[in-house]
Amino acid sequence: NLPRLQLALPLADAIPMKDGSAALGIGAFAYLQGYPLQEGSAVSWFTAGLLAYPEISQAGGLVAGGMQLYTGSLTAAAYRGYGRLGLGENDPFREESGILLSWALPVRTERRWTDFIDGAFVAGFHARSERTAEESFGLDAGPEGTSAVSFLAGIDVARRITDNAPSGGALETSFGYDLILSSFPGTDARQRLSQAFSLRLASGLGGLLGEIELRGRWFDLPPGVPLPDTLSEPRSGSLNPARPGLLVVSPSLVFTEGRGTAGRLFLEKNLQWGENSCGAATPDTGLPLNFRADPWYTAGFEGSFEEGRARFAAGILTRFREGEAWDPLGKSRIYLSFKLDALRGYVR
Fold first, then answer.
1. pLDDT number for residue 261
2. Which pLDDT value is given to residue 331?
3. What's the CA gap between 262 and 255, in Å, rounded?
4. Torsion angle of the four alpha carbons 244, 104, 46, 31, in this order, in degrees rounded to the nearest 10
5. SS3 at position 293
6. Per-residue confidence (pLDDT) for residue 238, from 0 to 100
């Protein structure tokens, strides 16, 4: 029951350089899938992708696969990426690589037509390293890097309820909560415990849903270390973690067509609070809890495929702020996001 090729696509990308040019990347992607050994069992799968940037001597890639393991499911991935850390003209370049392992134990899984409930305990391991520099660097050059090792345990639940009426009324909810224990090889920093959560509510009629999503985290971590991958991160990119508390508020208008597919017009606003206890300087706002609202707004459109708790999306976004002219080229980017058991994150 070896996986067989299901999809193969060419890939292309461009990394904006500080001189206004772009480093072009070319590559390919392939997806392979097996078949269930018995009715109702999970399928094995494997995917791989590669991008090469010959002008700057860089490359990125992903190898991942999954299979059923007893009553649970096991997923593994290894990746490497290179690009700009943010959308600003002075933002640095970052190279990152990592290994991820995920295991999920279903607690309750029921499906009837389009209605379902899917809940599981999840656990994961993530080893990650990254290098950052103000100027672009190649595979065999550049600065020294930092690394982190994280262990994750949590719960993940998704539910959809419809009234079976011709209008197609629906209520969708999902909730996730993770505890993350991180250590930092090569530093004197002690282990740190972090938390992250996500809550989504959506309701509507006839394939049009109004949605509100809250994603939050508490990352009281040493400065300069890689952050754990979670979907609590803003779509536009990591914020300065000098304030450990983060809440992302995201209202959306969702267009659904077919089982599991959707288009989403969204807006995001980031709220931060707290003081870091690990050596990072935290500016004082003078407000209760050292609260700060990020002056930037993020808006965009994404297409997604969702199956129970799993979700894969690709989209385009732009950032803007009051009192400043909108720069659609300099403040826009394409991204991918994924959520599969304990594997969560963004590819930008």
1. 81
2. 78
3. 5
4. -70
5. strand
6. 61
**Distance in angstroms (rounded) separating the CA atoms of residues 305 and 116:** 15
Put residue 113 in one of left, alpha, beta given phi > 0 → left and psi -120 to 50 → alpha: left
CA pair distance 156, 148, nearest whole angstrom: 24
Residue 56 backbone phi and psi in degrees, to 5: -115, 10
Q: Which residues pair with 3 in a beta bridge?
A: none
Place of tokens 């890097």: 145
**Residue-level pLDDT at 167:** 56
Beta bridge partners of 209: 204, 254
Q: What is the dihedral of CA 316, 339, 12, 63, to 10 degrees?
A: 170
Both tokens of residue 190?
């002690």
Alpha carbon distance 216, 57 (integer Å): 37
DSSP type of residue 291: -
Question: Could you report the average pLDDT of every consecutive run of 10 residues in the chain (348 residues)?
Answer: 80 83 89 70 82 92 86 89 75 89 90 84 93 89 88 93 67 93 85 93 88 93 81 75 87 83 92 84 86 92 87 88 80 81 79
Q: What dihedral angle (degrees, nearest 10) is formed by the CA atoms of 274, 346, 199, 202?
A: 140
> What's the confidence (pLDDT) of residue 83?
84
Which residues, other chains included, contact 317 with Cβ-Cβ below 8 Å and sequence gap of 6+? Answer: 235, 236, 298, 299, 300, 332, 333, 335
Nearest CA to 132 out of 240, 274, 257, 53 is that of: 240
Q: What's the farthest any 2 CA atoms get from each other in the chain?
A: 62
Strand partners, 177: 155, 197
Indicate the pTM of the whole model. Answer: 0.83
Contact between 21 and 46 (Cβ < 8 Å): no
* Residue 24 bridge partners (DSSP): 14
DSSP 185-249: TTSSPPPEEEEEEEEEEEEEETTEEEEEEEEEEE----TTSPPPP-TTS-TT-PPPTTS-EEEEE
Q: Exposed, middle or buried: residue 119 (CB in 10 Å: 0-12, 13-18, 19+)?
A: middle
Q: Determine the Cα–Cα distance for residues 202 and 306; give it in Å rounded to an integer.
A: 14
